[in-house]
Each structure stands twice: as structure tokens, then as C-alpha cells.
UniProtKB/TrEMBL annotation:
A GO-annotated cellular component: cytosol
Cross-referenced SUPFAM superfamilies: Winged helix' DNA-binding domain
InterPro entries linked: TR_Rrf2-type_CS (IPR030489), Tscrpt_reg_Rrf2 (IPR000944), WH-like_DNA-bd_sf (IPR036388), WH_DNA-bd_sf (IPR036390)
Recorded GO MF terms: DNA-binding transcription factor activity
Superkingdom per UniProt: Bacteria
One Pfam family of this chain: Rrf2
Name of protein: Transcriptional regulator
Length: 163
């Protein structure tokens, strides 16, 4: 199981949008440059975030993106679902139906696969955990984990790029 790097970039960039005043936005070019990645790649990620209602785009020369919701209302799962989709990680192929006993019609297959039920249950527990972590929580954690200088420098980088 692996989420794409797009989820990681999305979460990082969304944290940068937390402090943006409601009448301003941050351009995709600035976000991409700060992360050291392709504008095209990040544009695709932000297109998905926009479609999911997590961010809204602001057109124009000074345009860019801003959060569409409060950081308390954006969970890690919301971001994962927007970037990756909500398709189950475990893809049951019903291989039990190809087993010897089922091929020979000696046995009837049970109505549901126990393995699939366990895997889906585990995925739901993971989704519940990701739903419990929000951008607001992440922002508070970063305030504790990173130096005050790094946090200030990051905020200053984006406030200067919009001037």
C-alpha cells in the first residue's frame, strides 16, 4: 500500500494556505517553487483539491489558491480521497472461486470472502484515523516540531510572493 507523493505535497501546500487572508491567495508557481517541483505536477494536484472543494482558485494576475474550508474541517482523509480517489486499497479478485473444490462443483462458495472483509475493515480503521487528523492539527504539530524561525520564514516567503 502506498499513496502517491501528490498526497504529501498537497498536505504541505495546504498548510501554507492556512495563514493566507481570505481576500488573498497563493500562486501555484510560488507553491511549486517553494517545494522544488514542477508547476504542471502541482497544478494537477490542486485541480483535484479544487474539484473536491478543499481549495478554491482565484483567477487573474494575482490569482492562485486559498482554502475553501476551515483547517479544522479538512482532514487528511479528505486530501487522500481528493488526490488518490476512494477506491479500496485491497482489490479482491475472488481467487477462491478458482480453487479446486469450487472448480469441481464439490463445494459452494460462501457469500462473502473473509479475507476481503478483514482487509476492508482494516482500511476503514485507517480512514477513521486519517479523518481524525486535520490541517489545524498538522499546523499545531508543525508549530511544536519546527523552529519558530522556520515557521516565520515560510510564512514570510508566501506573504512576500503575493505583494
Amino acid at each position: 500500500m502506498q499513496y502517491s507523493v501528490g498526497v504529501e505535497y498537497a498536505l504541505h501546500c495546504l498548510v501554507y494556505l492556512i495563514d493566507v487572508p481570505s481576500n488573498e491567495s497563493i500562486g501555484i508557481k510560488d507553491l511549486a517553487e517553494f517545494q522544488g517541483l514542477s508547476e504542471t505536477f502541482l497544478s494537477k494536484v490542486f485541480g483535484k483539491l479544487s474539484k473536491a472543494g478543499i481549495v478554491s482558485s482565484v483567477p487573474g494576475v494575482k490569482g492562485g489558491y486559498r482554502l475553501s474550508k476551515s483547517p479544522e474541517d479538512i482532514s487528511f482523509w479528505d486530501v487522500v480521497k481528493a488526490v488518490e480517489g476512494s477506491k479500496p486499497i485491497f482489490q479482491c479478485k475472488n481467487i477462491k472461486d478458482n480453487g479446486y473444490l469450487y472448480r469441481e462443483n464439490c463445494c459452494t462458495a460462501p457469500s462473502s470472502c473473509t479475507i476481503n472483509l478483514v482487509m476492508l475493515s482494516a482500511e476503514e480503521k485507517m480512514r477513521d484515523f486519517l479523518r481524525s487528523k486535520t490541517l489545524a492539527w498538522l499546523n499545531e504539530e508543525l508549530d511544536r516540531d519546527l523552529s519558530k524561525q522556520v515557521r516565520e520564514d515560510t510564512r514570510n516567503y508566501f506573504s512576500k510572493s503575493n505583494i
